[in-house]
C-alpha cells in the first residue's frame, strides 16, 4: 500500500483564510479503513481552535470532526466494515483501548489520552488532520455506521453535535416525565431539541430571540422563550428538571440555575473561554447540580445514530462549497446559520 494524497482545506496560521491544498494520509494500518469523505460539518469548536480561542493550536490545521463518507479500502485485519459501507467519524480517532474508561466505552476519557481527530497528537507523534478533506484513514474502532435512511450530508453533524447532546440528555434522564430546556439553538442546540423531543421530554427552547420559534416547534419543542426578556426568568423559575446549555459564550449561570427544580441539573456542553461564576447558594440551596459533558464514546455514538434513524431525525443543514468556509465561520459566530454548515468536500480543488 502506498502513501495517499488527498485534497484538503488547511489553515496556515491562526485566523488566516483557508487554503485549498493537498495533504498526505498514512498507509493503511491493519485495523484501518480508508474513507472517501463526502461531507464535513463545521462545528463551533473548529472555529474556537482555528482562532486559538482555547489557547495555542498547531498549524497548519485541517479541522473537521463531523465526517461522513464511504469506505474505499480496508486494512487486512478489519472485520467490521467493507468497501462501500456508509460511515462516519467524530471527534476521536484513537485511544489506548485498555484502560478503565476505554473498557467502559468512554474512550473520550482514555487515561492515556484519546487522540482527537484534528490538531491532536497521535500515538505515532504525528499531528492529526481532520475531515475538511477528501479522505481519511482511521482505525475501525473509531468508525460508526451511518444507517440507511440518513443522508450522509445531514448525518455528518451527528458525529459531534448529535452525540454531544444525546449523551447528557440520556445520562440526565430526558424522557417522558422530564421538562428539559435547551439554551441556544445553534448546531448543538437544534440537535438537542430534536433528540430530547424524540426521547419524549417536554422541551423548551431558551434562545436570544424568538426568530427560531417556528423551527423549534417543528423540531418538537413545546415552548420557546427569549432570554433577552426578564419576564422569561420570572415565569420559568423552578420549572426544569434538566437544562442543556449549548452556548459558546459566557452566561449568567445564577439566572439559569434558578430555572431548575430542586435536584435539577444544568449541564454545560458549550465551552466559553472564561470561568463559570456561580454563587454557592444557587446550587447548594436546592441541591442542584452544575455539570458538564464531553462528547460521548463510540458505542454510544453508534446508538445515537441508530436512534436518529429510527426517529427520522438528522441535522438541519446548509451545504456549502470549499470557497465559502471562511465566510461560513463568520456567519456561525454571528449566529447566522440554520443550523449547521456542511462542506461538500468534492468542491475542494487544490491550487498547489
Ligand atoms: P453554534 O452553532 O454557534 O451555536 C451556539 C448557539 O449559542 C447560537 O446559535 C446561539 O443560539 C447561542 N449563542 C451564541 N452566542 C451567544 C451569546 N453571546 N450569548 C448567548 N447565546 C449565544 O455552536 P455549536 O457548534 O452548537 O457549539 C456550541 C458550543 O459547544 C461551542 O462552545 C463548542 O465549542 C461547544 N462544543 C462542545 C462539545 C462538548 O463535547 N462539550 C462538543 C462540540 C461543541 P440562539 O441564537 O438560539 O441564542
Ligand atoms: Zn464539534
Key traits:
single chain, 352 residues, alpha/beta, Quinone Oxidoreductase, Chain A, domain 1, Rossmann fold, 2 domains, 7-stranded mixed sheet, 6-stranded parallel sheet, 23% helix, globular, binds NADP nicotinamide-adenine-dinucleotide phosphate, binds zinc ion
As for the number of domains, it is 2
Distance between the termini: 25 Å
The overall strand count is 17
What would CATH call the class of the largest domain?
Answer: Alpha Beta
Structural class: alpha/beta
Q: How much of the residues is beta strand, in percent?
A: 25-35%
Provide the CATH topology of the largest domain. Answer: Quinone Oxidoreductase, Chain A, domain 1
Large-scale geometry:
globular
What do these coordinates show?
The chain is of the alpha/beta class. The chain has 2 domains: 4-160 and 296-347, Medium-chain alcohol dehydrogenases, catalytic domain (Quinone Oxidoreductase, Chain A, domain 1, Alpha-Beta Complex); 162-292, Rossmann fold (3-Layer(aba) Sandwich). The protein is 23% helix and 26% strand. Strands 3, 4, 5, 8, 9, 16 and 17 form a 7-stranded mixed sheet that branches. Strands 12-11-10-13-14-15 form a 6-stranded parallel sheet. Helix 4 crosses helix 5 (187-198). The longest helix has 14 residues, at 298-311. It starts with a strand and ends in an 8-residue tail after the last strand. The protein binds NADP nicotinamide-adenine-dinucleotide phosphate and zinc ion. Residues 43, 45, 65, 160 line the site of zinc ion (ZN).
Amino acid at each position: 500500500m502506498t502513501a495517499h494524497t488527498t485534497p484538503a482545506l488547511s489553515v496556515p496560521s491562526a485566523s488566516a483564510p483557508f487554503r485549498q491544498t493537498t495533504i498526505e494520509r498514512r498507509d493503511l494500518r491493519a485495523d484501518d479503513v480508508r474513507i472517501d469523505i463526502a461531507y464535513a460539518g463545521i462545528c463551533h469548536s473548529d472555529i474556537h481552535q482555528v482562532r486559538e480561542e482555547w489557547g495555542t493550536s498547531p498549524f497548519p490545521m485541517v479541522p473537521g470532526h463531523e465526517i461522513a463518507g464511504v469506505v474505499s479500502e480496508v486494512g487486512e485485519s478489519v472485520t467490521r466494515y467493507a468497501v462501500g459501507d456508509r460511515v462516519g467519524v467524530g471527534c476521536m480517532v484513537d485511544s489506548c483501548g485498555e484502560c478503565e474508561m476505554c473498557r467502559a466505552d468512554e474512550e473520550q476519557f482514555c487515561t492515556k489520552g484519546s487522540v482527537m481527530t484534528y490538531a491532536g497528537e497521535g500515538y505515532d507523534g504525528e499531528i492529526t488532520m481532520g475531515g475538511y478533506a477528501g479522505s481519511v484513514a482511521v482505525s475501525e474502532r473509531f468508525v460508526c455506521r451511518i444507517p440507511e435512511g440518513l443522508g450522509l450530508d445531514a448525518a455528518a453533524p451527528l458525529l459531534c453535535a448529535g452525540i454531544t447532546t444525546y449523551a447528557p440528555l440520556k445520562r440526565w434522564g430526558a424522557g417522558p416525565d422530564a421538562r428539559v430546556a435547551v439554551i441556544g439553538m445553534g448546531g448543538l442546540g437544534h440537535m438537542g431539541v430534536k433528540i430530547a423531543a424524540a426521547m419524549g421530554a417536554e422541551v423548551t427552547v431558551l434562545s436570544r430571540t424568538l426568530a427560531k420559534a417556528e423551527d423549534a416547534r417543528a423540531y418538537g419543542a413545546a415552548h420557546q422563550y427569549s432570554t433577552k426578556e426578564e419576564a422569561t426568568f420570572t415565569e420559568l423559575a423552578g420549572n426544569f428538571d434538566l437544562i442543556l446549555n449549548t452556548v459558546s459564550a459566557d452566561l449568567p449561570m445564577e439566572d439559569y440555575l434558578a430555572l431548575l427544580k430542586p435536584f435539577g441539573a444544568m449541564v454545560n456542553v458549550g465551552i466559553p473561554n472564561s470561568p463559570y461564576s456561580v454563587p454557592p447558594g444557587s446550587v447548594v440551596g436546592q441541591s442542584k447540580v452544575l455539570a458538564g459533558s464531553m462528547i460521548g464514546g463510540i458505542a454510544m455514538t453508534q446508538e445515537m445514530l441508530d436512534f436518529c434513524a429510527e426517529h427520522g431525525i438528522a441535522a438541519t443543514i446548509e451545504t456549502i462549497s470549499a470557497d465559502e468556509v471562511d465566510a461560513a465561520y463568520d456567519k456561525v459566530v454571528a449566529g447566522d446559520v440554520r443550523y449547521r454548515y456542511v462542506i461538500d468536500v468534492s468542491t475542494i480543488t487544490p491550487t498547489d
